[in-house]
Amino acid sequence: MLTAHKNFSLKKYNTFGVDVSADQFFDATSVDELKEALLVAKDRELLILGGGSNLLFTSNFRGVVIHPNIQEIRIAEEDKDSVLLKVGAGVEWDSLVEYTVNHNLGGLQNLSLIPGSVGASPVQNIGAYGVEVKDCIEKVEGILISNLAAITLTNSECKFGYRDSIFKNRLKGKVVVTHVYYRLTKKHKFITHYGNLDVEVAKFGDRTIQNIRKAVIDIRNYKLPDPEELPNAGSFFKNPIVSTKLIEFLQQKFQQVPFYPVSGSEVKLPAGWLIEQAGWKGRKVGNVGVHKNQALVLVNYGNATGHEILSLAHDIQRSVKQTFGVELEMEVNLVSVENK
Ligand SMILES: Cc1cc2nc3c(=O)[nH]c(=O)nc-3n(C[C@H](O)[C@H](O)[C@H](O)COP(=O)(O)OP(=O)(O)OC[C@H]3O[C@@H](n4cnc5c(N)ncnc54)[C@H](O)[C@@H]3O)c2cc1C
Fold first, then answer.
1. Exposure winner among 7, 165, 207, 233, fewest CB in 10 A?
2. Could you confirm whether domain 73-223 is CATH 3.30.465.10?
């Protein structure tokens, strides 16, 4: 039975640990329960909330929050080379990665230990260590919020890009993802060229998906703060894509500026490097700060409000713009619906 929770605290439902509440909260464990909750939410402010690891609440949520909690991992198809897994939106992302690696199914191992839910994985096309989830997604099933109709999008219809998809653009706020289908390999391709992953994998032995998972977990545990200990939402900003002309200009002043080619005329700049060079790494401002090892990560040291975190983010954006002439775009989604 679907229960409506009133004045529900969202502190445990956002990895920044911001203390806000929702007027109404539903934990929907099936497609039918999701539809029921969506009917209650009709004509009201609505937020679909997974693990809250890519969100910043800047106020209480004066509306309905629905947590899609469909728990299902099922083989939809299998042939000699691959398996198509159908996975419910509520499955915790890393439990899925662990499941696939334990069953010797390849594709997701580089994405180990990313927080959050399966339902959110196509939304921002999660990525890490040279892999994006779009490389494995075959299709996405959901419900259209306007009329509760079922919708299926193929990989190409999802219009995946760097931390981007149709769910952040044309279908933003219009679809609840209920299931994601991942095509996983039996004969694996190993992607270990990113950073020092190769070296870390070798410490565990041969290149296997199991050893890649172990290495990724080790690197992430070392580099990134655990939100349980130091609340954060991972990378706060996207790595900006800029013109090669701007790089040539920047190189005159900053010879060491790192970048990765994207196309003939564009390159990707590491936002963490820009923030560090602008002097923010390890800085603490009241209850908030920039992590000491990873300048892309903003952290909540105590009882910070969403506004305090946002204000720090704006200061960093201004400072990077002044120093390098580069705009930093937020990767984290801002959520605010007060007194409507
Ligand atoms: C320590 C840390 C490390 C991280 N590392 C990475 C990383 O390496 N790579 C990376 O890509 N990300 C990373 N992230 C960001 C985050 O984990 C991902 O964006 C994740 O996919 C968010 O999942 P979630 O369930 O928490 O989504 P939420 O934060 O709950 O929601 C994110 C967005 O997706 C929408 N959404 C959620 N579920 C659904 C659904 N079922 N249907 C429709 N819309 C939905 C929400 O409305 C919101 O707009 C990191 C975060 C943290 C805290």
1. 7
2. yes
- The residue whose C-alpha atom lies closest to atom 14 belonging to ligand 1 is 234
CA angle 268, 226, 299 (to 5 degrees): 65
| Topology given in CATH for the domain delimited by 5-68 | 3.30.43
- Pocket residue to mutate for ligand 1, from 13, 25, 38, 54, most atoms within 8 A of Cβ: 54
Residue with the nearest Cα to atom 35 of ligand 1? 120
Per-residue pLDDT for the chain (340 aa), expressed as one digit of tens each? 899 999 999 999 999 999 999 999 999 999 999 999 999 999 999 999 999 999 999 999 999 999 999 999 999 999 999 999 999 999 999 999 999 999 999 999 999 999 999 999 999 999 999 999 999 999 999 999 999 999 999 999 999 998 999 999 999 999 999 999 999 999 999 999 988 999 999 999 999 999 999 999 999 999 999 999 999 999 999 999 999 999 999 899 888 899 988 888 999 999 999 999 999 999 999 999 999 999 999 999 989 999 999 999 999 999 999 999 999 999 999 997 664 4
Same fold, 73-223 and 232-337: no
Answer yes or no: is the C-beta of 121 below 6 A from any ligand 1 atom.
yes
- Ligand 1 atom nearest to 15, measured from its CA: 53
Pick the CATH number of 232-337 from 3.40.50.20, 3.40.50.720, 3.40.50.300, 3.90.78.10: 3.90.78.10
Ligand 1 atom showing the smallest separation from residue 111 Cα:
8
C-alpha of residue 95 to centroid of ligand 1, in Å: 15
CB 165 within 8 A of CB 123: yes
Atom 6 in ligand 1: residue holding the nearest Cα: 114
User: Is the CB of residue 34 below 6 angstroms from any atom belonging to ligand 1?
Assistant: no
Distances (CA, A) of 205 to 62, 103, 211, 214: 52, 19, 7, 11
Residue 264 CA to ligand 1 center (angstroms) comes to 31
Q: Which of 163, 165, 213, 308 is catalytic?
A: 163
Burial level of 109, CB count in 10 A (0-12/13-18/19+)? buried
DSSP H helices in 159-240: 197-202, 209-223
Query: What is the domain partition of the chain in residue ranges?
Result: 5-68, 73-223, 232-337
The conformation of residue 238, written as its DSSP 8-state character, comes to: P
